[in-house]
Amino acid sequence: MLPDPGRGLRAVDPDDHHVFASLGCAIENMVQAARAFGLRAAPSYAPDARGIQVELEAAPPERTDLFDAIPHRQSTRALYDGRSVPPEHLRLLEAAGNGDGVRMLLFTERQQREDILSYLVAGNSAQMDDAAFVEELKSWIRFGYGDALSTRDGLFSKSSGNPALPGWIGRLIFSQVFTKDGENSKYENQLRSSAGVAVFVSDKDEPAYWAEAGRCCQRFALQATALQLRHAFINQPVEVPAVRGQFASYLGIGGRRPDLVMRFGYGPELPKSLRRPVEDVILRA
Fold first, then answer.
1. What pLDDT digit, counting tens, does each position of 38-53 carry?
2. Using one digit for the tens of pLDDT, what is the confidence trace for 248-283?
3. 149 in a domain, yes or no?
4. How many domains does the chain contain in total?
5. How many angstroms separate the CA atoms of 257 and 248, rounded?
6. Helix 207-226 / helix 17-36 crossing angle, nearest 10 deg
7. Cα distance between residue 112 and residue 127, in whole Å
8. Which residue range is the domain that position 45 belongs to?
9. Whole-angstrom Cα distance, residue 266 to residue 277?
């Protein structure tokens, strides 16, 4: 599995960290699917190709809750209902979210979430003040059904709880409705409605570990989905270098890099963003 250099995010992800984390998420889906279809998948990072190689061998088929959750998993950018997650379900989430060289930190106390909120607001404020970031984000929003159907990628407006609009109208009014104060207020309400926050931290700041963090994140997300929990990325604290260093100090992880941040809780389903068909992402010799 290889990254597509033409689809990188230069403003928000200049070192391709999220690219490799995303590859790890996709690889984890492959691992879970292989298991269900009678194969054992063994992924490994291939530095020469800057990609991930997956070796497959026959194994007894085993269908799991995580495999069944794959088509239902989504980042749900909505208010949750504030309910706590039972301890036995938190243990399942912890088991899913830890991996080889990656540790997941789970925060469920109110004060912990308020602390994390301060880094979320700081990161979001810095990004909202960055014209290149805002323009990059705007280019990936699919404001209406026509945009979503023609591209089959990006973030569909209704997936964030916003109305679907003709693309030209959405792009015209974007700067008027997408403001720093408005976004910070939205994130404050969303995080305070959540049951907890998961932070994924890898042992080394290298692509192989970024991908492993993605695998752990995807397992966590699939397990959450199987437990009828919603989740959404709140990666601003790790996307702005200055804030990321402060966030790492708060987490007490020394010189390690916090990779990904997700909030989770009980909440509604929202419309899903469309994705390209498999044949569009397969390289043929």
1. 999 999 999 999 999 9
2. 999 999 999 999 999 999 999 999 999 999 899 998
3. no
4. 1
5. 7
6. 50
7. 23
8. 11-129+183-272
9. 30
